[in-house]
Specification:
5-stranded mixed β-sheet, alpha+beta, 440 residues, 32% helix, 2 domains
């Protein structure tokens, strides 16, 4: 993509309404634009990052055996009345009526709808276990939306819902998602700490939040420092192995007896002082096992091997992609802008033409741009006639992992400069070596 043809409305000044780093940088980098309170458009640069985040989430859900579908954003109030949550959910739910005066709602979550889909289609234990997921926009009428897309009213969620015949089977499904979440956040360049959590309006009696450490986080984290250093499950993890996934869950939760979200509790104080971790964090995922909370009132049951009908055991598993993007920025930035992990960067590399219109610089940049694009790399080519300082500032602000800089003097010697955005390290190399650096 040539920068001269790309839509990226860079802001030179810090927006006054932005309270935290990620909100400020997302606005300045032209990733998002606010349309109304707590509601944002995702502009091309932001959309590219969001898509890459969703792809990683999707790959790990598929690896764990979940199956993707798509559910509507508008839901019938009747389903929520069946479950008993329509009146209990509160003012965060946006309630509306259609032209036939039927009560509807803009879905804040999908437990009721997925239960309805299940009960109308699955009748036998032979079709279990089953895990269905989707990635969809949702709406919660937050009383105080803030921090950009970190806490917005309209947001994107990946929701997965598991169905099992027994509690034991449901716990295995829970461990699948627990493991998949550890892998997902690691691939996003994050180390997420799983912590026991309240189930809130979702319900149930087993729940974990996944929290990344960040100074601007709303949550307080008090735990054993080893939580930050545990190994991540491998790509070839056997998700069908009950014992294998239980061992992963047990390994990550074995220190819970000595951890607490409240630092004044005895469990946290029992940890040796040098091994304590006290920090702030951002919730980026939440998983729940809630048994038959929805299947019983909504009649979601299957015939078991004993010939009798059984209410299924369910769980739900959420990740917020539109929350993850600013969370990544909070965890990875400097005074010049964003530093994207390579896995979610909007572009793999930016080629910077230091003297657009110069025959040698133009030719070199076109050569590099064509070679990297042909090799399948996502390349941004800064072919603008902006000043050098502006070009460098833009490249640093948008956080592309690598910069290939072509100036007249270096090009005359058959060379370019390669800069690592994360470390700031610069290396002069031949044009061929620079191309091979990214295509080999």
């Amino acid at each position: 993509m040539r920068l001269s043809r790309f839509f990226i409305p860079i802001l030179k000044e810090n927006p006054k309404e932005a309270e935290i780093v990620s909100h400020r940088l997302m606005l300045r980098a032209g990733m998002i634009r606010q349309q109304s309170q707590g509601i944002y458009s995702w502009l091309p640069l932001g959309k590219k990052v969001l898509d890459k985040v969703n792809n990683i989430i999707r790959e790990e859900q598929n690896r764990a055996g979940a199956i993707e579908l798509s559910m509507p954003t508008l839901q019938s109030a009747e389903l929520w009345q069946e479950s008993g949550r329509y009146d209990a959910y509160g003012k965060e739910m946006l309630r509306i009526k259609d032209r036939q005066d039927r009560p509807m709602l803009y879905g804040p979550t999908n437990e009721e709808m997925i239960t309805d889909i299940f009960r109308s289609s699955v009748k036998s234990y032979k079709d279990l276990p089953l895990n269905l997921y989707h990635i969809q926009l949702k709406f919660r009428d937050e009383i105080r939306p803030r921090f950009g897309t970190m806490r917005s009213r309209e947001f994107m969620m990946k929701d997965a819902y598991s169905f099992d015949l027994t509690r034991e089977g449901a716990e295995h499904s829970y461990n699948k998602m627990f493991t998949a979440y550890l892998r997902t956040f690691d691939r996003l360049g994050l180390r997420a700490i799983p912590m026991r959590a309240d189930t809130g309006p979702i319900g149930g009696n087993l729940s974990h939040e996944f929290i990344i450490l960040a100074d601007t986080g709303e949550s307080e984290v008090f735990c054993h420092k080893d939580f930050v250093n545990f190994d991540i499950p491998a790509e070839n993890t056997d998700f069908d192995s009950v014992d294998g996934l239980k061992s992963i869950f047990d390994k990550w939760t074995s220190l819970y007896a000595a951890t607490s979200e409240m630092h004044d509790e005895a469990a946290f104080n029992a940890i040796p002082e040098g091994e304590r971790l006290s920090a702030r964090g951002i919730e980026v995922g939440h998983i729940f096992y809630f048994g038959t909370k929805y299947s019983e009132p909504m009649g979601a049951k299957v015939q078991g091997p004993d010939g009798k009908e059984h209410f299924v055991h369910m769980g739900s598993y959420g990740i917020g992609p539109t929350r993850l993007v600013p969370a990544i920025i909070e965890a990875s930035h400097d005074e010049n802008g964003i530093i994207w992990p390579e896995s979610v960067a909007p572009f793999d590399v930016v080629v910077i033409n230091m003297k657009a219109g110069d025959e040698a610089c133009d030719g070199t940049c076109e050569l590099i741009y064509a070679a990297l694009t042909k090799a399948g790399k996502d390349v941004l080519y800064d072919d603008t006639d902006d000043r050098a300082g502006t070009k460098f500032a833009t490249a640093d602000l948008i956080g592309v992992p690598y910069q290939i800089i072509a100036g007249p003097r270096a090009v005359a010697n058959g060379e370019v400069e390669v800069k690592d955005r994360k470390t700031g390290a610069r290396e002069t190399m031949t044009i061929e070596a620079a191309i091979n650096r990214f295509v080999a």
